[in-house]
C-alpha cells in the first residue's frame, strides 16, 4: 500500500489554511513534506512543527510561485531533504479586495494572474519535469486548487480571481491527458466557502460565514474538509482518478 510507505510531497502555500491542513494530514501518514510559503516564516515553522508532531517530517521553503527560479528551488530543496517527490499540491493562491472589474487596476490584474495562473503553471511544469516517467521520473500525483468561483464567476467581487481559477480547471483537463501517459495523475479540487485567512486578505474576514446562507449545508467548510480530498487524490485511494475536478463546496 502506497499510503504506508514514506512519500515526499511538496505543498505550495503550505504555511497556512488548506495547505497547512493538507501538510498535517500527510504527517499523520508518516510522509515528508516540503512546506512552501511566500513570506510568513512563523506560520511555516508552526506548520513544520505540527507535521512533525503528527508523525511526519517537514521542511519550510520560502519562495514565490510566480518566480521561476523560486519554483525550481522549492522542488530542489524538497528533494534534497527527503528524496524523489511523489506528489505536488499546487495550492498557493491569492485574492484581492472585492470590487467590480471597472475598478480594478492593471497592477492588481497582473498580480492575480501572475500568482494564480503563471505560478500554478510553473509548479505544474516543474512537476512534469521531475515526476514524468518520460524524463526518468517515477510518476506521481498533481493536485491543483481551483475554486467554485471558476463556475460561479464571482461578479462584482472577484472576476479576476474566478478567471484565474477557470485557467486551473482547463490546465487540469489538458495536463491529465498530457501527463497521464507519463505516469502523473492530474486532478483539481474546487473548494467553496472555506474558513481560512484568505477572506481577510481580500478585506472580508467574515465572508465565509456571511455567505453561508448560500450553502445547502448551511455553513462554511473547514480546511480539513478540503485537505481530506487532497489526501485522497495524492494517495492510493485516488489511483484511478485523472482529470477529475471535484467540488468540495457543501453543494454551493
Ligand atoms: P490562505 O489561508 O490565504 O493561505 C495562502 C497560502 O498561500 C499561504 O501559505 C501563503 O503563504 C501562500 N502564498 C500566497 N501567495 C504565494 C506566492 N506567491 N507564492 C507562494 N506561496 C504563496 O489560503 P487558503 O484559503 O488556504 O487557499 C488555498 C488555495 O485554495 C488557494 O489556491 C485558494 O485560491 C483556494 N481556495 C480557497 C477557498 C477558501 O474559501 N479558502 C475557496 C476556493 C479556493 P504565507 O503564509 O507566507 O503568506
From TrEMBL:
**Keyword Ribosomal protein carried by entry:** no
Supply one GO molecular-function term: oxidoreductase activity, acting on CH-OH group of donors
What's the protein called, per UniProt? NAD(P)-dependent dehydrogenase (Short-subunit alcohol dehydrogenase family)
Pfam family example for this protein? adh_short_C2
Q: Which PROSITE patterns match?
A: ADH_SHORT
This chain's source organism reads Dongia mobilis
- Listed Gene3D superfamilies: NAD(P)-binding Rossmann-like Domain
Q: Which UniProt keywords apply?
A: Oxidoreductase
Instruction: Please state which protein family the record places this protein in.
Output: Belongs to the short-chain dehydrogenases/reductases (SDR) family.
Report the NCBIfam families cross-referenced here. PRK06947.1 (NF005400)
Amino acid at each position: 500500500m502506497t499510503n504506508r510507505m514514506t512519500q515526499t510531497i511538496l505543498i505550495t502555500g503550505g504555511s497556512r489554511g488548506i495547505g497547512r491542513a493538507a501538510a498535517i494530514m500527510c504527517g499523520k501518514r508518516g510522509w515528508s513534506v516540503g512546506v512552501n510559503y511566500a513570506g510568513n516564516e512563523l506560520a511555516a515553522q508552526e506548520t513544520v512543527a505540527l507535521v512533525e508532531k503528527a508523525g511526519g517530517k517537514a521542511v519550510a521553503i520560502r519562495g514565490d510561485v510566480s518566480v521561476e527560479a523560486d519554483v525550481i528551488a522549492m522542488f530542489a530543496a524538497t528533494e534534497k531533504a527527503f528524496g524523489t517527490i511523489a506528489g505536488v499540491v499546487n495550492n498557493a493562491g491569492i485574492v484581492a479586495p472585492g470590487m467590480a472589474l471597472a475598478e480594478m487596476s492593471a497592477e492588481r490584474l497582473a498580480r492575480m494572474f501572475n500568482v494564480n495562473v503563471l505560478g500554478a503553471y510553473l509548479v505544474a511544469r516543474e512537476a512534469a519535469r521531475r515526476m514524468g516517467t518520460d524524463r526518468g521520473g517515477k510518476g506521481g500525483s498533481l493536485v491543483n486548487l481551483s475554486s467554485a468561483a471558476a463556475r460561479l464567476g464571482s461578479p462584482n467581487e472577484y472576476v479576476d480571481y474566478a478567471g484565474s481559477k477557470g485557467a486551473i480547471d482547463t490546465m487540469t483537463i489538458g495536463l491529465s491527458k498530457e501527463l497521464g501517459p507519463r505516469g502523473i495523475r492530474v486532478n483539481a479540487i474546487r473548494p467553496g466557502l472555506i474558513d481560512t485567512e484568505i477572506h481577510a486578505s481580500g478585506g472580508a474576514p467574515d465572508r465565509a460565514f456571511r455567505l453561508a446562507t448560500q450553502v445547502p449545508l448551511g455553513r462554511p467548510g473547514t480546511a480539513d474538509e478540503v485537505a481530506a480530498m487532497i489526501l485522497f487524490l495524492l494517495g492510493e485511494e485516488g489511483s484511478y482518478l485523472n482529470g477529475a475536478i471535484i467540488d468540495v463546496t457543501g453543494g454551493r
